[in-house]
Amino acid sequence: MKTRSFVVGSILFLCTIIAGCASQGTNAMRMDPGSVLPGTSVMRAGTPLDLVGTPIAVSDQLPATALVEAGTMDTVDLSQSRGRVLFLSIVPSIDTKVCEAQTHYLGEQGDRLPAGVERITISRDTPFAQSRFAAEAKLTDIRFLSDYKEGAFGRSLGLLMNGPRLLARAIILVDKEGVVRYIQVVPEITNLPDMEKAFDRAIELLQ
Amino acid sequence: MTAITFKGDTIHTAGTLPAVGSRVPAFTLTDRDLIDRTLADFQGRKIVMNIFPSIDTSICALSVRRFNAEAAARPGTVILCISADLPFAASRFCGAEGLDKVVTLSDFRHKEFGADFGVRITDSPLAGLLSRAVLVVDEQGQIVFTEQVPEIGQEPDYDAALAAL
Known about the structure:
The complex is a heterodimer.
Chain A: H1 2-19, E1 31-32, E2 41-44, E3 47-52, E4 67-69, E5 75-76, E6 85-90, H2 97-108, E7 117-123, H3 127-137, E8 143-146, H4 152-157, E9 160-161, E10 170-174, E11 180-185, E12 192-193, H5 195-206
Helix pairs in contact in A: 1-2
Chain B: E1 2-6, E2 9-13, E3 28-31, E4 36-38, E5 46-51, H1 58-72, E6 77-83, H2 87-97, E7 103-106, H3 112-116, E8 133-137, E9 143-148, H4 158-163
Parallel strand pairs in B: 5-6, 6-7
Antiparallel strand pairs in B: 1-2, 3-4, 3-7, 5-8, 8-9
């Protein structure tokens, strides 16, 4: 645990330097082991936000929805994916500090994941914003998919925050047959998900 | 429906721009602080609506820089830069470049904007984004200039828009 905190701290510190946002204390961010159910509600700095859409549950098939691939602008339907474990890192916006930290963690600490695990960041940022972020952050091992149009992906999982109309912070793992096997919806969206636990589960799903 | 081009290929928008001489349609869009703003918040001043696909592309960025400089010279005019970018992207861009004279607005919560102004792109990989267009509105809310830029990769006619102010 101590090692992990040190690693997180180091990464956040680096992010702070890179992004030049000295105003945000790194100790403000923590990994939250808790989870709420899709379709219920999350908190943002103490204010509740309802999650709208059709709630996804463990052992459901990932529903068919269209996302847009950053870089190519191709339409992607993740429900058609087979043969790899999908590690979906869902964030409100890559241009905010916690999401940036989560995405760096996925791209850097996530290098311990075997090649059979596909790391994917999903947000409502435009594909252009995602491409710019990926290039500046040098995160080349993560796919970036955008739900900019209507938030249809978020709705299909019960993860669209009513009010802000952004995606809630969550990790979803999908097995090689397209079945959802793990869901963490972070109860307070200013906290990070438990990335290490999700990494461990992703490795298990590959076996 | 209006035909425009994207890198030479024909693409389409959901409608046509409101006509010169008509009243500007009401709208709700979200500002950099995630607060919803409406037409009423800006009325009574001259308004330039600089509409584009994404601030994270070079031509859009150029237009925001140019209009920011023009806004600084025209205190009675408000310049709205409108796109599907999340407010965080607009903050990052304008913050990094010190562009504090323009108001950035996003349609990410209010997709009816693209239909009401006839600027939502309906096909091609850019579907769902806003086309590149400029509207100028006078103090009484009457539209005095419009330009639907014919090619997405081309800058708007700044001089023509500014001459209408």
